């Protein structure tokens, strides 16, 4: 299990700015089981960690480019990722406060993610990994209107056309054949 850990004690005196490319191991971990070109994929983490009482805030951006395979034609499909990171890590002993109290209407918690830290270190990876996975669309396509491969001959229908795809398309004259013109 990979971890992206930072010591909480180091945040006592000052915030920590993190601006780094995640190593290929992290990219591989996030894309586990997904058909991807890992060499051509990259993830950049640009966040600030700060401590408020016993909680750790992580605020910034996770950006990257993932090179996956189009589900229809198997050509490369580029996923540009720009995820706003806005997470709060609370001690494991604390129960996560849900915004059930209607009196806290000032709190804009819509875009906040909650996770736990163990008091010693905060591990950013589990939440980031989840966010990367959620950023990948259900349908990974090279382009929205990808024509895919012909199921009969396997030709890439974005590049070429084949005769087998014509199928039941009728010539306009076919319909005329059966019409008896009044004489
Ligand atoms: Zn495609
Ligand atoms: Zn074909």
Tell me about this structure.
The chain is of the alpha+beta class and 183 residues long. It folds into two domains: 5-146, no CATH class; 148-183, no CATH class. 13% of the residues lie in helices and 32% in strands. It contains three helices and seven strands. It has helices at 24-30, 125-135, 172-177, and strands at 5-7, 16-21, 42-52, 55-69, 76-91, 113-117, 121-123. The strands form two sheets. It has a five-stranded mixed beta sheet with strand order 2-3-4-5-6, covered by helices on one side. β3 and β4 (55-69) form a beta hairpin. The N and C termini lie far apart (83 Å). The relative contact order is 0.17. The model is unreliable at 99-107 (pLDDT under 50). Bound molecules: zinc ion (2 copies).
Q: Shape from CA axes?
A: elongated
Order of helical and strand elements: EEHEEEEEHH
Total DSSP helices? 3
Strand order of the largest sheet: 2-3-4-5-6
Biggest β-sheet, characterized? 5 strands, mixed
**What helical percentage do the residues reach?**
10-25%
Structural class: alpha+beta
Q: List each distinct ligand once.
A: zinc ion
Mean pLDDT: 86
Uncertain stretches of 5 or more adjacent residues: 99-107
* Distance N to C terminus: 83 Å
Instruction: Estimate what percentage of residues fall within beta strands.
Output: 25-35%
Rg, Cα atoms, Å: 26 Å
Topology, number of strands: 7
How many structural domains does the protein architecture include? 2
């Amino acid at each position: 299990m990979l971890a992206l850990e930072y010591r909480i004690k180091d945040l006592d005196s000052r915030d920590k700015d993190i601006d780094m490319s995640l190593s290929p191991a992290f990219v591989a971990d996030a894309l586990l089981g997904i058909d991807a070109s890992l060499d051509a994929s990259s993830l950049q983490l640009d966040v600030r960690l700060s401590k408020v009482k016993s909680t750790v805030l992580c605020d910034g951006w996770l950006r990257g480019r993932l090179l996956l395979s189009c589900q229809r034609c198997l050509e490369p499909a580029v996923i540009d990722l720009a995820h706003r990171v806005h997470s709060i890590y609370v001690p494991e002993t604390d129960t996560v406060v849900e915004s059930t109290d209607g009196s806290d209407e000032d709190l804009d918690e819509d875009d906040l993610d909650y996770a736990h830290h163990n008091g010693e270190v905060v591990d950013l990876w589990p939440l980031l990994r989840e966010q990367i996975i959620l950023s990948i669309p259900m349908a990974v396509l090279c382009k929205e209107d990808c024509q895919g491969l012909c199921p009969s001959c396997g030709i890439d229908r974005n590049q070429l056309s084949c005769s087998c795809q014509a199928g039941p398309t009728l010539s306009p004259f076919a319909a005329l054949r059966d019409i008896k013109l009044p004489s």
